[in-house]
Amino acid sequence: MKRRVCACWGALAFAAATWAADFYLEPAPGDVGAWPETDATHQLAWDSGVPYWLVAWHTGKGSWVGNDFDVSTLKTFAGIKKIRFYTGPAWPNGRWDGMRWGIYAFNGGAPGSRLKGPTWAVGTTPTYGWNDYQVGWVLPTGVHAFVAACEQYYDYPNCDPFLLDNRALFRGHSWIYFEHTWRAMSTSGDPYRNLMLRVVVDNEQNPGVTPASFGRVKVMYY
Fold it and tell me: How far apart are CA 98 and CA 153, in angstroms?
């Protein structure tokens, strides 16, 4: 995919005028690969797999982005194996700085209390790509919906960006957290609002159980 030329990157405000946060945007690099599915693991995703915008918060600490997922139809897949976050070291400062990830409750209306984390992580890819953060945690009994999220932590330009995909249609599952409030993803880069953050779930805590079919997962998430 050719790099999209854009002259408008810079400090850009939230669409919600009541918020004081600023974003910095940059055209994103090329296409990405797929996670190898197995009988014991499934990848849950809302993005198209093609990056479009690189985005960084002006103020990083306390600024989170996340995607909600629901494994209620997957029955035995209550284990969160990995969070997969598409990011890279090149922009805005040419190095990895690190971020924090966490798992939040989700009641369908907005993300709720934190269930796990925050846990520190640093990217490992030499350029932009999927960075896998090991979770290895089973959702509490009765919990099927959750939000997997990453906090930028450091201020721009000493930070690692998050990426939005090239799908102009908002899937309605990406969230931002700023000034102690969760809201649906919204930037002045609209309509591109689908966060490139995925989760790999597993049934490895339940050996011998027949996994849900990949067809059902694909219907839910693609």
Answer: 8
